[in-house]
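Practice problem: predict the structure.
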Amino acid sequence: MSRLDVRRAVLALAGLGLVGVFLALGTWQIQRRAWKLDLIARVEARIRAEPVSPPEKADWAHLDGPAIEYRRVRVSGILKHDRTALVQALTERGSGFWVLTPLVQSEGTTVLINRGFVPGDRKDRSDRTEPVGDVTITGLLRLPEPGGGFLRHNDPAADRWYSRDVSGLAAARNLHDVAPYFIDADATPNPGGLPVGGLTVVAFRNDHLVYALTWFTLALMSAGALIYALKRPRAEI
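Answer:
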């Protein structure tokens, strides 16, 4: 085999390999799109379903987070307003804070309730009417947000919170038997109008079709370039 034939063979193998990689990436994005559409459909069904009881303590160690997040749940108990934490938030109503209050259930376990949003100038307890006694709250089950926000970390010592970190908040507020999730309260109005619930953002990016078309286009362009190169006169390769 001449050196020219070797060069043509190497070129063909490299080109076919590149086409294969692009086709594989495009196919993977199509599969990811199918998975994402299924996820969106399942989550939409959860948030519109009748509320159920959240997972009990016996099930906490074996929770499948993705399978339970955004499940519509209902809990009852007593809100411990003196253990409330404010978590910085940016919502459709502007910047402010989430009001996270522990709710102690009848069996003694605690669930953190995100009662809703308050603007920055209304964060003091005196600006809120705090219900006492047994309450029942309906909302969406959410998974913890450990660590902190983007480029910022929770600072328990200074009581500055940028994410709804269940374990961190539980430790800082000396809470025990705390569920490994929190609940976003729904839009049921609170006495006095604050905090404002029902602001959970349920959105999933789904750009997989665009990515798939990009990879398939690159595969087609690579195949065309390879065919053009191999059809050139042997002396020009």
